[in-house]
Amino acid sequence: MMRIKFIGASHGVPEPNRKCSCTMIEIQGRYYFIDMGTPIIDHLVTAGIPIEAVKGIFITHMHGDHTNGLIHLVDLLSWYYKTSDPVIFLPKTDCVTIIEDWLKANHTPARQLCYEEVRPGVIYNDGFLKVTAVQTLHSDCSYAFFLEAEGKSVLFTGDLKHPDQDFPAIAKKYETDLIVCESAHFDATDYLPHLKECRTKLIYIC
What we know:
By secondary structure, this protein is of the alpha/beta class. The chain is built from 6 helices and 12 strands. The chain has helices spanning 41-47, 64-79, 95-105, 163-166, 170-173, 192-195; strands spanning 3-8, 22-27, 30-34, 54-58, 87-90, 114-117, 121-125, 130-136, 142-149, 152-156, 178-181, 203-205. The protein has a 6-stranded mixed β-sheet with strand order 1-2-3-4-5-6, with no helix packed on it. The chain has a 6-stranded mixed β-sheet with strand order 7-8-9-10-11-12, with no helix packed on it.
């Protein structure tokens, strides 16, 4: 069964009891993350989840409230959790140099990790989870992600410029079990005209 846990669902500034954007998906003991705006190692260790069980990380865009926890993860993967090897999808792979430069500043030797650049279309399919990327207009390089697993489908819009301009059409094309909408930059009600056109069972607006 696919399980979804919102570790963080806040906007750019953390609030009491709300961390920045980070969603964990569990599928048959395998774990995947949509964005990493907050460190996740503490959560995994507390929950008794092996770090090696993290198989994929999908970043919607490179703003800090979606990526600040990623450097913390890469740091620990580089010198401690050396048997963990998730695929890390970034909107721009030139950001890898920035991550590695930060590790050098901390005197941490960066080990070779698997980074992939997000492109429109199917970007990942390990036989458990299939991920399709849809480009959006929130930043110069930003994406929504459409997930399919175990007969279920979920759309994560990521931050959008505005639903009238870049609501992912894939949500209207297919029946979905869940649509997760981020609305830090406009009123949540702005989604309504578009959501009415979607065949979905559940909507979560954060």
